[in-house]
Amino acid sequence: MGDLASAFRTALGLILSLDPAVLAIVTLSLRVSLAALLLAALIGLPMGALLAVARFPGRGGVITLINALMGLPPVVVGLLIYLLLSRSGPLGSFGLLFTPSAMIIAQAVLITPILAALTRQVLEGMWEEYAEQLRSFGAGPWRAVPTLLWDGRFMLLTVLLAGFGRAAAEVGAVMVVGGNIEGFTRVMTTAIALETSKGDLPLALALGMVLMAIVLGVNALAQGVRGIAARWAG
Questions:
Q1: Would the pTM count as exceeding 0.85?
Q2: For a tag site, which of 61, 179, 190, 191 has the least CB within 10 Å?
Q3: What is the CATH number of the domain that holds 89?
Q4: What is the extent of the structural domain holding 16?
Q5: Cβ neighbours of residue 144 under 8 Å, at least 6 residues apart?
Q6: Is 104 within 8 Å of 29 (Cβ atoms)?
Q7: What is the tally of structural domains in the chain?
Q8: How many CB atoms sit inside 10 A of residue 222's CB?
Q9: Distance (Å, rounded) from C-alpha 42 to C-alpha 212?
Q10: What is the pLDDT of residues 175-220, one digit of tens each?
């Protein structure tokens, strides 16, 4: 018990002193997750909006597929990205494997279906409510997408926060494609796994505290945005 208390004290000291190792890992984690979120948002938000407004044969199957992809096993995603980026893979010539770029791609693949599915759920109700009015202005489904994305921006912000939280907590895929290289591809989740296995509990606890603070902060922010959206709608 004394060793555990000492580890917690040391971990807190690492955080409060802005330990360079902790700071570097946290900074890289945020850079990777935010870049992955941006990439996923550029694909997932328009995709979800189109599924919300468009009616076409096979739409139900596409929605079912996207919903199923929300539960993609991270290690499987990591393996597929690894095969694509390896030297013998189709994208091997770009030399992205075991770089932050590979980690960004893996996280983006994981959270794009989440953003698309949640965006569709958010905007489908708005389309049903405003479809007739938008059509009266000559806005068909394709032209309605930017309008719905803008009008639903507060609710979609919670979708983005959910995607960021999922990306920041990812470990399996980024370890496979990033290699957990110290000072280059080591992020909070992979560092926690490594330092725990090495028995370096203070560093693992410090990173765990920071990660928990980020996740809790994201959830609190999402809750606040939902409240703002509800007041805006009212």
A1: yes
A2: 61
A3: 1.10.3720.10
A4: 2-233
A5: 53, 127, 130, 131, 134
A6: no
A7: 1
A8: 18
A9: 27
A10: 999 988 888 999 999 999 888 888 888 899 999 999 999 988 888 8
